[in-house]
Design brief:
The chain is an alpha+beta fold. It is about 40% helix and about 10% strand.
Length: about 700
């Protein structure tokens, strides 16, 4: 039966697919022109290169590829059983898919005829096509086609294009060291690209040379001579000038290869990237690290801006694309700290609670885990709104436990978090690692009124002739969060920007919402926020996880966010957040007075938001009562957050010891107790502290 199925498959492929060698006439690497959303050119990659005949290539050029990708290529029939067994054992030992076991013939089959989907059916089809190619072609023909189709990074398809891209010469002229380096790119084109990581590329080249020695293709003396060769990489002028767009363009190209098989001519990729905003975000991130990175011990930052449909308007993956092309906004996984708490609160709201629901900020112990607030103090009875605005740890853990195992994880998954999540008590404090882009996409659901979001950058792909290869269709509207619940979330997250840990993020004239995040020992600092127009996410930290010097989410990340969004909102209509209305100044002052005093919010203004102009007392960091008593009202708000210090303990506006500035505090006994107790942790953000002894049992809100 198996042989009959295989024979049927081979006959089917012969009928359905063209003679593979006939595709040689089409093997010219396409020029890929990447356009911004306004039609301006972001980058041009992969200039057309001639087809490279294997007969004209030095043996060490194709030998380097065979040695590192498929050493038994000339001895198998398209499938390498030994390679498959070895890969399976490596994967079992590592607990993940570390090796694939694909031969060069399988890779060519996938490149020529298949989609990149990783399914068992597609793998079986790949094996069948590999056998078919081995029957139809000689080994020389297979290797030649492979070398002319494979992707070597930086928009270079084929060995000739790669040689010209990295060394500005024909593949026929490559030295042994150069050939080894290019062959090494096949393992991970972005990771080992000379354009992004020259040292990593050289190190990978040395590994390839060692493999060539093991395969008997070169001698030890030739290996030593190649290792001693000084490699000089070619850097196109156009790319130097377009470094502002590097991370965004790479993101697009990495998702493009399956779409680029359109024949001869140029490939035009229309994207969602806003060129002006991309340049500004790149500059803001770079300037912030230049100004504050040294003092804070922060070496890197990343930022992403989405529209409410999920279109990526700007994407910056690090302080300098020229220094490192590793995209920290997309590929890095870091703990988000309290930026994860909105998923906990969303689960609570969907269980029937409201922003005014009272809960308890008191010590809590769950088995051996006993989280505490940053200052080690507790506020007692608080509303959910205040607990989220002030990023109170004990409340988040209490809510997560009461919601039940799996509830918060399911909520995060529903909003687009795909990274692995640990479903334990510490989940509420953001101890699982996620990417900046997926967090931005999740928060974008709050910004757009509850609809599903899948971040994307490619709008369409077409040939210069006009033939459309791909056009993104707007997905069917899928509501993930009900309107009233979205309104309540926006109400609470707005409070975090107006008088909570994220107060430095307030932007003039626009209602904004967001959440800070700071992890243990200040290893990561986040701010993710949004308006009715855009969502932006910012991360600050070090690639190796080294602790920073009290760099918290409410500090530099919130400042970066404010600068980005202030620029992006120039000329935009002032709109309330989804499901809310903007309070008038009188309403906002009254509401702020109640919050300041520790009282519950009145029920006649549910799901309402504020903007910084409506609360002039924020500028002075004093109570609204004092501002009203003096009759003082600044004509325009000062720059929120300017030189206000770096510690998150300075992030909130509810009263703290030493911050009253002579403000009148209500003498109501309950308000006084709340005002003078643990509110001193008001903006301390969210670091999950080491376990402490004692605590109370789980339970209760009302």
């Amino acid at each position: 039966v198996l042989l009959a199925s295989l024979a049927t498959m081979l006959i089917y492929y012969t009928v359905m697919f063209p003679q593979p060698l006939a595709m040689r006439a089409k093997e010219r690497a396409p020029l890929i022109r990447v356009l911004a959303r306004d039609g301006s050119v972001l980058a041009e990659r992969g200039a057309a290169a001639d087809y490279a005949s294997l007969d004209l290539l030095p043996k060490h050029v194709w030998g380097a590829v065979v040695a590192t990708e498929d050493r038994r290529f000339f001895g198998h029939y398209g499938i390498d059983p030994l390679g498959l067994v070895r890969a399976m054992l490596v994967n079992l030992r590592s607990g993940r898919v570390a090796q694939g076991g694909s031969t060069l013939t399988q890779q060519l089959a996938k490149n020529l005829f298949l989609t990149p989907d990783r399914t068992l059916a597609r793998k079986f089809e790949e094996l069948g096509l590999a056998l078919w190619l081995e029957l139809r072609l000689s080994k020389t023909d297979i290797l030649e086609l492979y070398l002319n189709r494979v992707y070597f990074g930086s928009g270079a398809y084929g060995i000739e294009a790669a040689s010209k891209r990295y060394f500005d010469k024909s593949a026929c002229e490559l030295t042994l060291a150069e050939a080894a380096l290019i062959a090494g790119l096949l393992k991970a084109p972005s990771k080992y690209s000379p354009a992004s990581s020259p040292e990593a590329a050289r190190a990978r080249g040395r590994i390839v040379l060692a493999k060539m020695v093991e395969a008997g293709l070169i001698s030890r003396a030739e290996e030593r001579q190649a290792n001693d060769e000084r490699l000089t990489f070619f850097e196109p002028t156009a790319e130097r000038e377009a470094s502002d767009f590097g991370y965004a363009v790479d993101f697009v190209l990495e998702r493009l290869p399956p779409l680029a098989d359109g024949g001869d001519g140029e490939v035009v990729v229309e994207t969602t990237i806003d060129a002006a905003l991309q340049r500004r975000v790149n500059r803001i991130v770079s300037d912030a690290l230049q100004k504050d990175g040294g003092a804070l011990g922060a070496g890197q930052a990343a930022a992403v801006v989405l529209d409410t449909d999920g279109g990526i308007r700007a994407l910056v993956g690090g302080r300098s694309y020229a220094e490192s092309q590793f995209n920290r906004a997309v590929k890095a996984r870091r703990q988000p700290g309290s930026a994860f708490k909105p998923f906990v609160y969303l689960a609570a709201l969907e269980a029937g609670m409201t922003p005014e629901t009272m809960t308890y900020d008191l010590p809590i112990a769950i088995g051996g885990y006993a989280p505490r607030n940053d200052q080690g103090t507790y506020a007692g009875e608080v509303t959910l709104r205040r607990a989220l605005a002030q990023s109170i740890n004990t409340v988040a853990v209490r809510l997560n436990q009461a919601a039940g195992r799996g509830r918060t994880v399911a909520t995060a998954r529903r909003l687009g978090i795909e990274s692995a999540l640990r479903d334990d008590a510490s989940l509420a404090l953001g101890t699982s690692e996620v990417s900046l882009l997926e967090m931005a996409g999740a928060f974008d659901t709050f910004a757009n009124g509850g609809a599903a979001v899948q971040p994307f950058a490619i709008r369409s792909v077409r040939m210069s002739s006009g033939r459309v290869l791909y056009a993104r269709e707007m997905p069917a509207l899928q509501t993930l969060v009900a309107g009233p619940v979205v309104g309540s979330m926006n109400d609470m997250l707005n409070a975090g920007v107006v008088y909570g840990t994220g107060w430095r993020a307030g932007i003039a004239g626009h209602a904004a919402a967001g959440k800070t995040g700071t992890t243990q020992e200040f290893r990561d600092a986040w701010f993710i926020g949004y308006t009715a127009h855009l969502t932006a996410a910012v991360w600050l930290g070090n690639d190796n996880g080294t602790p920073m010097r009290r760099a918290a989410g409410g500090g530099v990340p919130a400042e970066i966010w404010r600068q980005i969004m202030s620029y992006a909102h120039q000329g935009r209509e002032r709109l309330p957040l989804a499901g809310t209305r903007v309070l008038s100044e009188a309403e906002a002052m009254q509401d702020a007075a109640l919050t300041w005093a520790g009282a519950r919010r009145r029920g006649d203004v549910p799901r309402a938001v504020r903007v910084v102009e409506t609360l002039p007392w924020l500028v002075r960091q004093e109570s609204p009562q004092a501002t009203v008593a003096r009759g003082s009202r600044p004509s325009a708000p000062e720059a929120v957050g300017a030189d206000a210090g770096r510690g998150e303990q300075e992030s909130g506006f509810l009263p703290t010891a030493g911050r009253r500035s002579g403000a009148a505090i209500s003498e109501d006994p309950i308000a006084k107790v709340l005002a003078e107790s643990a509110v001193s942790q008001s903006g301390a953000d969210d670091r999950a502290a080491a376990p402490t002894q004692g605590g109370i049992s789980l339970g209760g809100w009302r």
